[in-house]
Structure formats: C-alpha cells, structure tokens
Amino acid sequence: MQMKTMLCASALALATVAGPLSAETLRWARTSDTQTLDPHAYNEGFTHTVNRQMYETLVERDDEGQLQPVLATEWGMLDDDPSTWEFKLRDGVTFHDGTPFEADDVVFSIERAKSETSNMRSLLAAVESVEAVDPLTVRFHTTGVSPLLVNNLVNVMIMNREWAVANGTETPVNYKEGEESYASLHENGTGAYTLVSRVPDSKTEMEAYAGYWGKDLFPLDIDRIVYTPIQSAATRVSALLSGDINFLQDVPAQDIQRLEQTPGITVVTGPENRTIFFGMNIGDETLTHGEAEGNPFADVRVRRAMNMAIDRNVISKVVMRGQSQPQGTIAPPFINGYTDEMGALPAVDLEGAKALMAEAGYGEGFSVTLQCTNDAFVNEEAICQSLVGMLARIGIDVRLDVQPGGVQFATIAKGDTSFYVMGWGVSTFDSQYMFDNLVHSRSNGRGAWASINYQNADLDAKIESLGTEGDLDKRNETIAEIWKVVQDEVLYLPIHLQMLARAMSDNLVIPANVGNSVSVKKIEVKD
Amino acid sequence: MFLLRRLLQAIPVLLVTAFLSFAAFRFIGDPVQSMLGQDATAADRAELMAALGLDQPFPVQFWNFIVNVLHGDFGFSTRIGQPVLGLILDRLPATLELAVLSFVVALALGMILGVTTALKPQSWISRTVMAGSLIGVSLPNFLIGIGLIYVFSVQLGWLPAFGRGETVQIGWWSTGLLTVSGWKAILLPAISLSLFQVTLILRLVRAEMTEVLHSDHIRFARARGLPDRMVNFRYALKNTLVPVITVSGLQLGSIIAFAVVTETVFQWPGIGLLFINSVNFSDVPIMATYLLLTAVLFVVINLIVDLLYYLFDPRLRVKAAGR
User: Fold this and answer.
1) Is any Cβ of chain A less than 8 angstroms from the Cβ of B79?
2) Is B33–A123 a contact, with Cβ atoms under 8 angstroms apart?
3) Are A229 and A32 a contacting pair, CB within 8 Å?
4) Contacts of B86 (CB under 8 A, 6+ apart)
5) ipTM (interface pTM)
6) What is the pLDDT of residue A343?
C-alpha cells in the first residue's frame, strides 16, 4: 500500500518535471554560489554575475571591457561644474513588479549602496549626494573633481525604492540587529530575467521577464536559467560531459584540452582582467617569517634578483599548460596606464641574480616562508611550488605555508607576512584602483591590501592626487610616474594574467569576457 | 535512572566540544575579511568586528555563545545572512536521507555478504567478495564517487552527476524520495558513501561469525540435529550482533556527520556541504553549531546503541535486574 502511493506520487512528479529539456534553458554551473541576492551586500564576482541577470546597472562593460549604456543612455561631467556628473536615464523601463523605473530609484539605490552596511560603499566614497533633476535625469555631486566616477558604477545595481521600503529592506542586511534580509532572498530588478526560486548552495532558477525593455535589442534566446554551484572540479566537468549542464563557466585548466576534443562541446578561452603576483614585506625591520639578517626584502637588489630568477614562461607552460599570459607588471593590459614596455618579461639571468644577491650581502642566501593559498586562483599552489625551485637556484630557501584563501588572506591583509601570493582584478579598469589598494602605504583609508608595507610619502601624495585631478592628460602622466617607481623598485613580483576558459554545448554562443562576467540576454542559441 | 545518568554524562562532552570548536574557529580565519571583500578599509573592518562582537575577549565571546545556544539562538550566518538554525534544518533532510539510505544499504549488504563468507569461506564467491572488500576499504571516498560519476553519468548517461533532483516539501522536511529524479540523484552518492561501510560491516560480521560458529553452543545445536538455517541465523548470527550494533551505530553517526566528502563530490545540498562552504568563508556560527550538532548526534546514537544491547543480549538484562 505504502509502495503504491509512493509510485503514484513519483509518477505525478515525473509528469510535472520531465518536460523536454529545451535548448532555451541555460543550465549553468560554476564553482561557487552567489552569496546573496542583495546586490549591495557583497562585492564579489560570483554574486554580481548572477545578480546581473536580474538587476541592472547604469552602465556596464562589454566582453572587451568597453563601457556600454544600460539604464543610463548618456553621461558626463557638467561643463560648468566638473564636480557634478549627469546621467540621462532610459525611458520605458519597468521593474519586475511592474513599477516604472525613475530617477528617484537611482537616488535610492546609490544611497543604499553608500549606507553603512553596504559592501559597495568604498566604490562610492567620492559621491557626496545624488539628486533627481527630473524623472529621467540624475546628478551625482562629488567631493572635488572625480573624473572616473562612471567606472565605479559598473557593479552598482539599481533597486526599486517603493519595493525596498515596503519590504523593510532599505539597507543591506544588518548584522548588528541579527535580522533577516528580505532582499537577500527576493529580487525586484529591471533585468531581462526574474527569479523563480532559490536554494542557497544548490540552485537558483530564473525565467525571462516579459516586460523587459530590451526585448527587441538582444537575442534573448534563453528563456530560462538554472544556475548551480558545483565545487568539485571533476564533477563539474562530468556534468557537462553527461549533459546535466550545458554551460560550464570555470573550466579547470587541466581539463581544457580534453573538453576541446570532445564532440558537441565548445571551449572558449581569453585572458581575464586579473594578474597573479607575489608580494614581499619591504617595510619591516626584520624578516618576521623566516631566518635572515635584517630584512633582505628591504634591499631592492634582492627583489631584482628574485625577479630575474623567476622563469615566467616555464610557469605558463608547465604549471598552467599554456593557459596564462606571462606578465612583467602587475597591471593587466586592459587598464588605463598599462604600457607594453611595462608588460615585457624581465630576462631570466641566474648569474646576474646571484651577483646581485652577493652584492646585497645575501650571497649565502636566506630562508623565508611563502604564504600561499589553494583555492583563490588557478593552480596557485603549483605556482608557489615552482617558485620554491626557482628561488632555490639563487640561494633562497622558500618554505610553503598553504591554506585556503578564507584563512590565508585574513593573515596577509593584517600584514602578518613576509612573502605571499596575491591576485588582483581591476574592476574599474584604471590604475588608481591598484595604487590605492596595493601600493599606497597603510594610511588615510588606503593601502588595505598593501602588505608590502612600502613607505614613500612622495609616492603616496602622487597616488592621492589622482582622485581629484580633472585634467586627464596630466593624470595619466602621474600614473606613468607611479608605475615607473613600482617597476624600478620591484615592489611586486608579477607572474601572469589568468586565462579564463568556459565550455558550453555546441549550440550556445557565449564569448569570453575580460571581467569573467556573463550576460545571458546576449547568448545566442544555434539550431 | 540509567537514561538520566547517561544524559548527565553528555553535558560535559557537549561543553568541551562547544569550547573546542569555538576556539578553533575563532583563531583560524577571519569572517570579517570574507564579509567585506577586497575593497574594505581598516576602519570598515574595525567597525564590523565591533558589530559582530569579535573585538571582545575570547571568554566573553564563548560565554555569549553558550548563553545564546541555551536560549535556542545559534547566531547568524555571516556568509548567508540568515539564522544558523534555519539554515541547518533546511539542509538536514538531504543529509539524513542520504545517510540513512546508505546505512541501510551498508547494513543489508554487509550482513548478507558477511554471513555468506563466514559460512563458505573457501567458495569462489567468498574469495571474490573478500578481495573486492579490500578495494572498498583502501580506495578513498572521493575517488569512488568520481569513478561512479564517470561510469554512470558520463559513459552510460543513466544517472545525474550532481544535485538532489526534484524535491517534494512535506512540512519543513524536503524529501527527494518521492520523485523519480530524486531517486536517480540519490543512488550514486548513497552507494559511494556506503561502500566503505559495507566492507567494514562485512569483515566484522565475518570475523564474529567465524568465531561463534566454533563455539560450544553451536556445536551442541548441530549435534542435536537442528536444521542449518536455524543454527546459522537464529543462534549464530544473533550472537554476533552486539559488536556489530556498536560499530554500525557509530558508523551511522559518522556517515551523517562526515558525509562532507561525498556531499562535495556530488554537490549534495546537505549540512556537510554547508559546513565546507562555511569553512571557506570563516562562517564561525555555522561551523560551531555544526560541530555541536555532531556531538549531540553521537551522544544520542551511543545512547540508542546502549539500549539496543539490552534487546539483543539477555545477560545484560539479568545483571541490571540483579543489582
């Protein structure tokens, strides 16, 4: 009897779920889930990429990193007042609940993203106030001149004021009160897709929004999205091979070749706007994590010697199986301020490196602990291991301390390190973002990740001037000067740009994207 | 009386677990780091530390944790932004269904194969089973999982490689056992999780059974001309059950608590997966609650095992009554 009811129930369930798996459903898997649906609660790639299908920003970057209009159609600084930015908004846009999109929603969203519990506030630090001039015009008043403000808006998504107020979610989740956030499980954006259901860590389903403003502008071939995080690399690839999913965004480097050879599957690769590099604690008096007289990293000759001892081509070929672009600078080529001269690889010269080490008084070498992660970038643990061998050739005895990013980065960010791995994506596509976080000494709210602990008041002043310099030519000159110091002083040991690989079933056209983002509305489905 | 004593004994066990888990997680990693992301300033960090109470001395934090737990408040996930208890309860059904199914498979297969190999140790079946069981013991769990996925999902295309399939909601319990896709999805993880247990129970039953078969009461039973089936299953098997129950009880505990690897390989949305994700994000409230739950689980299972002894071993009952 019990058996019979069970069979009935399962037959019923089968009837409701087992429709034909149409090609219009994007069954999309990545390593990690979106952390929340609240677009201002968490400034992180996985989260933004999913939320971007439901929420929209004023402007966005296309696959090549160029700015494109979304909810804003025109933008610029006012001629008579360079401390004000004006955005003209798109007409005829509605939120998923049907409310029309207006300037007041932008004002609300920017204020929400600037609020104390928001994770996006540092991007909006220069915004003093936002004002709705008319229903389709907003003005941003900045503290001083902020020539690159628009770059900081590519991840700031626009919410609906009435909806947020009605549901008591005017600010991102407030940990102080320990309250549950409505916006972390519900959405009301203007995007091409609306939320159907979400089970954290398991599945997020979306379907096409019938009232989308861009219906005639984009292919919109996909009418349903099922997003699944799959942590295990082998399972992720198997799921694609078996057809359980049809779009795999993070292909493990070791599986690219195999997937390329599999009929029915296309692999697309391209460089990501992110460099992987090593940092050394330059500013410390002594070597805290290792044994040496004084702090060898304080001597630029030691840093140069290390730079000359690292064979980036070998790392690319052996560790990355060709899936990386070796770099001589920590600046990705996509950003403002990059030059090919900076990017050129330093020549590998072991004799020269040894001579420099001897000159610096470390001819006998020294030992140091390298703090490495194993889950934050592509194959970084193997990169660290290869560094051990390469630096041993000039007498540096490197010991590895490998831990997950969640643990290791906390230690590194505190400055409790001598030698560490780091990767940096440049969401603003401008050098200033890197200088603020990685070069500027830890002061005046800057240098949050500058565990190199480099003290140079002159350089700090130059970095600070970038934020308010309205003359772009002059600003670019200063950027070049700063990069010259970073390069000449070998403040970091750059390794490479990560390549991104995404694999999909043959009938989907999903190009590579330098920001590793995906715009599902633009995906074309072939017959 | 017995029950009460056991429950009182459980209290220090739970306190120690709570302390250890809390201490361990407090000192590794930094939830603030993962909450604020790469753009945060030092001031932002200090502010959030204060908001979460992380700036207080460790004993104060631990005391607050215990007091809150006693009030049924397990805290707030720093990663997902929801109460911990709800998150764990949401995922518990997935883990329990997986664990119980694989436990049933393991117990059934283990007993049958164990008895078979004990009764006919020289037959080719027994030799194959014993050789095969070595593989089950020595292969790591994730490798078995990946192998199963490769054969049944990639090559044959019969079963899904990940996930739980469609689920049906019955009250707060979400079950995957009422849909075809749910059954399809649970098979591979359940088998992969049970394989080690099968070999363990098989070897245990076989060893115990072999020993019992040589004892006096079995010889007498045979001498009296009792049918083989009755001797083997009524008199021999029953006498092997006490150690088997102990071990398999504890194994059930560890299946539930440590299905982490299997859940990760199959992206099974249970508490193991939740735990792993929490480790990556230094989500202390979830990690501490999870370990506390695990401790409670073991205490409860131990208690049940003790009670089962009474059922299967009459000598214990006599002793207790005589006292």
Assistant:
1) yes
2) no
3) yes
4) none
5) 0.75
6) 93
